[in-house]
Amino acid sequence: MPKAIKHLLSTFAGMTLLLSGASQADEKNLPEVFQGYDRSSTYEINYDDYTYLLRASVLNAGRSSRAIAKSGKAKTGTRLKANINKLTALEGNRFLYESFEKDEHKKHFRNISESLQKVPSEVPLKLFSKDEQLAYWLNLYNATIIAEIIDEYPIRKLEDFITDSDSPLDEKIITVAGEKLSLNDIKYKIVPEKFGYKPVLIYGFYQGIIAGPNILNRAFTGETVWDELDRNATNFVNSNRGTFADTKKKIFRVSSLYERDEVYFPNFDEDLNRHILQYLEGSLRYDLENAKRVRTNISNWKIADVYGTERQFGGAIANNNAALMDSASRADQNLDRDSSGYGNINLTVTSSFMEQRAINFGRFSPEMVTKLKTIHAEHLSHSGQVSITDIESESEEDKSDEGSN
Question: What's the pLDDT tens digit per position in 147-206?
């Protein structure tokens, strides 16, 4: 396990959930401002600006064909060879990091992150449903990590960025309701404590690498968040990034992501096997069930850009990226709601749009803010409390927990 995560877990060593290996949420371990939810709430946070940016930036590759990339042989005009991971080189959605090198474009995702951080200052999170809160935390995490990676770009590999003991993921760069948080705080403390240590949650956290869960080309919403997580889990498990069978040696390989996120698998071997089988399709189910060993050693730390960090090589890597884009184009024709519209990407137009809307984007209409604050004040009046943290203290799980993983 990476040093950064070990350090983080030691910080949370007193948590009864971790000690017991339970999978249920116990948000009492969280700051009070993050506790509580309104089961009946129909209020939603607006992410139109974030979705607009994602649709302009994400190249959707569709379901994996499990194709193996060609070797990086040099072609005429160059003696340079691309050192690629053939198993996973054609896998996963790509993000156009190479289009965010100008300062005028770099700020967009940072503005989204800063805007989302202000949401609980406008309206307490506990006035929203549990699903709406989950969508909020995933969107905040992903917008922020994209902004951080954009600041680092061009960078070829992100292993140190993700796993170092002084990883940027451990820096307290986020402030929500007065609480300073790191990205790892969100992933390993807030989300699992609030929503349970459900393995499907790990597919909502984008890592910026080829062999990680896909970044979607739209924001999570409370209405769709669990379906999106299931879809992302299915896509990941049924790809070379997630699983691969070495039938000759009877070794079943799975992503190193699972080892890094082992806190979501209290009884690691048993829980991981059960989780993979829940989503795995086809003949690989037989391969897993009959494998002599399962090894968590599938990795590809290369940044999930389209061509920017490989353009100097030409040759096979150029062909591989062309193959990826062709695949994505075909996927777009079949998946209208996932269509990234690669040919329509225009960050100049996007920049103009974001100048008008992203920086001071209203997540709520004035009427909604007034109504929510009125409801909040009324509750405080009836409860005789003056703390904004004394909202509903339901002990039973939200309906979303019943159907989630």
Answer: 999 999 999 999 999 999 999 999 999 999 999 999 999 999 999 999 999 999 999 999
pTM: 0.80
Distance CA 218, CA 129 (A): 20
Tokens of 269: 């071997």
What is the spatial distance between Cα 288 and Cα 128, in angstroms, rounded to a whole number?
Answer: 41
Query: Hunting for tokens 């970044």 — which residue is that?
Result: 215
Element (H, E) at 6: helix 3-11
Q: Is 324 exposed, middle or buried (0-12, 13-18, 19+ CB in 10 A)?
A: buried
Overall average pLDDT of the 78-86 stretch: 62
Which residue is listed with tokens 């709520």?
Answer: 364
Judge contact between 312 and 80, C-beta under 8 A. yes
User: What is the helix (H) or strand (E) element at residue 236, kind and residue range?
Assistant: helix 225-237
Of the chain, the end-to-end C-alpha distance in Å amounts to 24
Res 374 pLDDT > 80: no
Count the neighbouring beta carbons within 10 Å of the beta carbon of residue 294: 17
CB within 8 A of 278, min separation 6: which ones? 405
**Ramachandran area for residue 329 (φ above 0: left; ψ -120 to 50: alpha; else beta):** alpha
Alpha-carbon gap, residue 282 to 125, rounded angstroms: 41
Quick one: CA torsion of 379, 384, 386, 388, rounded to 10 degrees?
-30
